[in-house]
Amino acid sequence: METEVDFYELLEVERTADDKTIKSAYRKLAMKYHPDRNPGDADSEARFKAISVAYDCLKDPQKRATYDRYGHAAYAQAQQGGGGGGGGFSDIGDIFETIFGSAFGGGAGGRPRRGADLRYDMEISLEEAFHGKETEIEIEVSQTCEPCSGSGAEPGTDRTRCPTCQGHGKVRAQQGFFMVERPCPTCHGRGEIIEKPCAACRGEGRVDQPQRLEVTIPPGVETGTRIRLSGKGEAGPMGAPPGDLYIFIHVRRHDVYEREGTTLLTRVPITFTKAALGGTVGLPGLDGEWVTINIPAGIQSGEQLRKRGDGMPVLQGRGRGDLVIEVKVETPRKLSTKQKELLREFQQSETDAQCPESQGFFERIKAGFSKL
Ligand SMILES: [Zn+2]
Ligand SMILES: [Zn+2]
To answer: What distance in Å separates the CA atoms of residue 171 and residue 163, rounded to the nearest whole number?
Structure first.
């Protein structure tokens, strides 16, 4: 099983986006995740590399068309296939073409292609994304027909070699100056002819069957993560290997936490007295533990506190991201007479140095203007 993110989702663009949109989306994200801007942040670096690979593919019309047609899995496969060869992002394109040339499009020998890949959308909560989960899904998928083992021929009956193509599955034809190969029109590339079609599958070699599948959601998945169940897609024609099943993850919005990669963000309102004097606030953590946050005295509204290692788990990695708490200072909306008295007394004792931004704000602006 492996986990992947779609190139379009990575660049946060629609599948129909034009080149200009893709370019500007890439630039925006590349700026954001550039290693120079995020020194020492492995998460950003990984993201930066991933968007570079995505852009390298989508900016090239030919590569993009191939990607759209065969999907991410094939691209990733091509990438892996080239891993030992040369390395470097620029090589991917060539490897991509080479591998597609042989693995797809019914290249060699007119052999039937593997079954189609399938998509299954799964919605999970942020807690489930945090812990990961074991679950079962039920889907209707075509399976290789058992009685005929996918051949499409009624058991006990004969299959004969196709007379048109002599079993090659392809015929050659002259086209202008060139000799081209086409799938055989008699046997549709199978190379053989069925005497009597199998009753169970009507000669298809495949039948739709409900399937219960166990799915392991690893901790740290996010919206856009794809989990591949290898060989759990549609059965291939004529007993050819099946395709893959992709579980597309969608993480529901959470009441308390927002998430960006492995970072969890939450906004916590605190009273103005707590902001001035300092104190603690408590939050329910996604791991079920209570998170206590120390509020330093003199914190400002909008200021962020970071708790390292209290964020989301790193997908297929170790450790956790950070928890970021953005503080919102709340001013009392009503005061008793006694409180007003106390605050007025406090006001008398306030000095410029205590609240340098607001004290003398307009004087400073005016001073600034007169210098112009
Ligand atoms: Zn034939
Ligand atoms: Zn059958």
So the answer is: 11
Strands 304-307 and 323-330: antiparallel
Q: pTM of the entire structure? A: 0.59
**206 Cα–ligand 2 center, Å:** 6
Q: How far apart are CA 343 and CA 370, in angstroms?
A: 34
Ligand nearest to the CA of 143: 2
- What per-residue confidence (pLDDT) applies to 77? 62
| Tokens describing residue 170 | 């392809």
- pLDDT < 70 regions, the chain: 1-4, 74-112, 371-372
Sign, Cα dihedral of 108, 109, 115, 116: positive
Closest-lying ligand to the alpha carbon of 193? 1
- CA–centroid distance, residue 215 to ligand 2 (Å): 29
**What is the 117 CA–ligand 2 centroid distance (Å)?**
21
Burial 333-358 (b: 16+ CB within 10 A, else e): eeeeeeeeeeeeeeeeeeeeeeeeee
Q: How far is the CA of 189 from the centre of ligand 1 (A)?
A: 6
